[in-house]
């Protein structure tokens, strides 16, 4: 400005000999420090000139400080915005009238409402009192935990919410598991107690065949209780990832033949077919654990095909794995439940499967045992109806 020709309105025009002003600035500890240099030609600065230059230096310091404060504010807002946008929790900012001012991406993913759908209106869920928590289920079935806090300086409300659907499902599954387990335990215990009381009070009045039948029933129910206890123990170990298996080569073909050998005489309504590929290689895993897996899969095949039909067991090599499938012509598994049936405590409510009872641990244990050996188990629809359970284990290195 001093070099322009229009200096009439500037006080520097009254400072004879002033031809250059330089300002050097440095930041120390985040604060600006600097020095102002004024160059006069052919004369020294007087008292008035020094006061004016000091005033200029003061204004320059204020201007630089304001600029740095503005930059800090911009950086802080950018940081806050990045946190707001990157948060896995849904976050909303409401004005004093409860209208949405800001709505982060996670809020849209959790609720299914994008920012354009809610900004300017109320959020799609009720708000708890500040400091309290509210659990709310959306129309899409998702459960949210909602908390909020008020900003006294602005009157705005910050709302934070997260998805607790999985926790809710697990809580409901555990409640159902406890109720079902109580029922599964009560039935055999009641039968055992009843027959034991009958034998105790009427032993001499019963015929030998009646006594044998009562003892046989008690033994069967005791075996049922023992099987249930084994399932509960295996389920707890699998949940704690404490399943102990040995990984060594064994003959899966022989194991399948042994597991299916006596099946044809178990039911006059079912037909059993076994087809094992010739020269099936040894697999790497635990023979005892695999026998438990096969036993559970075969038991389910009979259990969930109450009207009979074909139960077919096949085994063949597929790449570096050996595959075993168990097919039945039973009630089947709905597509949405083919993964859920392998979760702990889950008992499928759809279709006719729920009427067969159980504590929701059998297939959870099956998959846990298979995966502990480096294999897996999955559920598929059988062509023509029913269920196909597919297990695979890795071929042993000695057979590759």
Brief summary of the model shown:
The protein is of the alpha+beta class and 400 residues long. The chain is 40% helix and 24% strand.
Describe this structure in words.
This protein is of the alpha+beta class and 400 residues long. The chain is 40% helix and 24% strand. The strands form four sheets. Strands 4-3-7-6-5 form a five-stranded antiparallel sheet. A hairpin with a 5-residue loop joins strand 5 and strand 6. Helix 4 runs antiparallel to helix 5. The longest helix is centred in the N-terminal third of the chain and has 40 residues. The N terminus is likely disordered.
The low-confidence parts are 1-5, 349-357
Total DSSP helices:
8
Note the main sheet.
Answer: 5 strands, antiparallel
Class per helix and strand makeup: alpha+beta
Amino-to-carboxy terminus distance: 87 Å
Strand count: 14
Q: Calculate the mean pLDDT score and round it.
A: 81
Secondary-structure map with pairings?
Blueprint: E1 18-28, E2 31-40, H1 47-86, E3 90-94, E4 100-103, H2 105-111, H3 115-118, E5 133-137, E6 143-151, E7 156-163, H4 165-202, H5 208-239, E8 248-250, H6 252-260, E9 270-276, E10 283-285, H7 287-303, E11 309-318, E12 321-328, H8 362-372, E13 376-381, E14 387-394
Parallel strand pairs: 9-11
Antiparallel strand pairs: 1-2, 3-4, 3-7, 5-6, 6-7, 8-10, 11-12, 12-14, 13-14
Helix pairs in contact: 4-5, 5-8, 6-7, 7-8
List the keywords.
alpha+beta, 5-stranded antiparallel β-sheet, 14 strands, about 400 residues, disordered N terminus, 8 helices
């Amino acid at each position: 400005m001093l070099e322009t020709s229009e200096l009439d309105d500037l006080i520097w025009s009254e400072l004879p000999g002033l031809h250059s002003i330089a300002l050097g600035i440095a930041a120390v500890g985040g604060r600006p420090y600097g020095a102002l240099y004024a160059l006069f030609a052919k004369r020294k600065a007087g008292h008035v000139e020094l006061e004016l230059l000091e005033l200029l230096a003061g204004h320059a310091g204020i201007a630089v400080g304001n600029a740095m404060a503005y930059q800090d504010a911009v950086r802080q807002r950018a940081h806050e915005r990045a946190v707001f946008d990157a948060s896995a929790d849904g976050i909303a900012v409401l004005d004093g009238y409860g209208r949405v001012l800001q709505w982060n991406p996670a809020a849209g993913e959790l609720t299914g409402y994008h920012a354009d759908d809610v900004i300017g209106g109320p959020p799609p869920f009720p708000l708890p009192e500040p400091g309290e928590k509210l659990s709310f289920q959306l129309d899409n079935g998702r459960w949210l935990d909602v908390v909020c806090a008020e900003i006294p300086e602005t009157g705005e409300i910050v709302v934070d919410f997260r998805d607790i659907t999985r926790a809710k499902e697990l809580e409901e599954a555990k409640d159902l598991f406890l109720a079902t387990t109580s029922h599964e335990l009560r039935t055999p215990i009641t039968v055992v107690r009843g027959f034991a009381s009958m034998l105790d009070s009427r032993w001499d009045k019963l015929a030998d065949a009646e006594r044998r039948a009562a003892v046989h029933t008690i033994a069967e129910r005791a075996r049922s209780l023992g099987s249930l206890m084994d399932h509960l123990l295996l389920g707890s170990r699998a949940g704690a990832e404490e399943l102990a298996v040995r990984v060594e080569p064994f003959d899966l073909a022989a194991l399948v033949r042994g597991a299916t050998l006596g099946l044809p005489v178990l039911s006059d309504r079912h037909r059993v077919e076994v087809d094992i590929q010739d020269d099936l290689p040894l697999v790497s895993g635990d023979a005892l654990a695999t026998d438990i897996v096969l036993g559970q899969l075969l038991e389910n095949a009979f259990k969930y095909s109450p009207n009979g039909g074909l139960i077919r067991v096949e085994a063949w090599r597929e790449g570096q794995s050996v595959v075993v499938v168990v097919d039945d012509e039973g009630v089947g598994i709905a597509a949405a439940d083919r993964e859920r049936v392998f979760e702990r405590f889950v008992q499928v409510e759809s279709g006719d499967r729920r009427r067969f009872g159980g504590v929701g641990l059998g297939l959870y244990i099956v998959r846990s045992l298979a995966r502990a050996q480096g294999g897996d188990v999955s559920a598929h629809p059988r062509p023509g109806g029913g269920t196909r359970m597919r297990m695979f284990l890795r071929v042993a290195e000695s057979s590759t």
